Amino acid sequence: MKKPEVIFVHSSLRRGGAEVLRQSIVGELAERGVRFRICLLGKPGDIGFELKRQGYQIDCLGISGSIADPLGILKLSRYLKQHQPLIVQSSQFVTNVKSVVAAKISKIPVVITEEHGLYQWKRWSHKILDRLIVSQATAAISCSVAVQKFACSMMRVSDGHVRVIHNCAGPEFMNLPVHNREATLRHLLRRNSSFCVGIVASLRHEKRHSDLLEVWKQLHHQRLIPEDSALLIIGDGPLRNSLDQQAASLPGVHFLGEHSSVSEIMSCLDLFVLPSNSEGFGIAIVEAMHSGVPVIASQVGGIPEVIRHGKNGYLFTPRSHSELSAAITKIWEHPNLGKKLASQAFQDAQRLFTPQRYVTQLLELYQELFRVNKTVPPASWKVAPPELRISSLLGASA
Question: How far is Cα 191 from Cα 218, in angstroms, rounded to an integer?
């Protein structure tokens, strides 16, 4: 078997932003002729098992999730020396730490993906270590300009060290089939709904589900939306119990948990809402755009790089219940406006947030690293069409 040109390192492939992104681009990488393996420090997770069934090379090393794990780093280093890839790429804090050290030992260029959460959870010791790791990585990728600026400021590195590559929706959101909305809603809710609002996000404080539930309560109390309106909450997390309690007396709220067919649910929505107070990018927003669903999202982090207020969606001030309530009401009362916003959002998503566009920019970054390291890029990689190259995209989005 030929050696892999790229090895992607993850702690696991449970369903999450970095993991879903990896799943989204593997098919495009394979089509471009890139040979790669996925190395998991821990267990496969549901996405890992799915990719294995599809025939991708998945290796599990059984390394602990602790930062202080020199034996784990040594094991990863031996794995990299065994396979000798041209590039190592990792995602998320602990995995980045281990991958950078192991790649340095193995003398292999390493690209890391910077954290999307803008430091919400990190302790001072983590931040110091993060600065060291980012500076020692060959290059870093951020999902938005907002994350890039924040990272460069906090890490004290140049803008050129952190490349912006906006995330993309997965292949299942490209050329979506037509779903029977009524049948899907009856299957999910045991009833139909004249106005269906949804959110796809981990049940964590920064996603502000509690704000959306409070606004939902006001909308019903003031009779600003129909009685049969439904709020679909897709995702799971540590706040599930408290959010359940908050929603217990509210009409039409449905917790669907983790779901294997988010694209089918998205196609049933009349509106997608993301009220986060911290968001590096917001991949679910792009999924909604591909699904032809109007979007309302908080004006924070990288979201304004995706949603242009009044053009392809609505932005509101984080934690402003009045602004969020007014925006939801407007979409309900003016369905043609919602359709207009969704139509423009769909066009933007099809142009800017696809696996083809993401992989093009990723391979351009790799090729820059090859030139810097005086390495010849693999001849088997397919060249991207001109319309997908970085220079074209920057001009189109200006």
Answer: 23
Go through the domains of the chain in sequence order and give each one's CATH number: 6-168+354-397 (3.40.50.2000), 176-352 (3.40.50.2000)
The DSSP annotation for 234-300 comes to E---TTHHHHHHHHTTSTTEEEEES-S-HHHHHTT-SEEEE--SS-S--HHHHHHHHTT--EEEES-
Q: Any idea which residue has 């139509």 for tokens?
A: 343
Hey, how many other C-beta atoms are within 10 angstroms of the C-beta on 217?
Answer: 17
Taking each helix axis from N to C terminus, what angle separates 209-221 and 240-247, rounded to the nearest 10 degrees? 10
Q: How many CB atoms lie within 10 A of CB 249?
A: 8
pLDDT tens profile 99-155: 999 999 999 999 998 765 455 555 656 677 878 888 899 999 999 999 998 888 877
Alpha carbon distance 272, 294 (integer Å): 6
Task: Round to whole Å and give the CA distance between 323 and 295.
Answer: 14
CB of 349 closer than 8 Å to CB of 286 = yes
Label residues 349-359 b or e (16+ Cβ within 10 Å = b). Answer: bbebbbbbbbb
Query: The pTM is what?
Result: 0.88
Provide the pLDDT confidence category of residue 242 given band limits of 50, 70 and 90. Answer: very high
User: C-alpha distances in angstroms, 204 versus 208, 307, 349?
Assistant: 7, 22, 26
Q: What is the pLDDT of residue 199?
A: 97
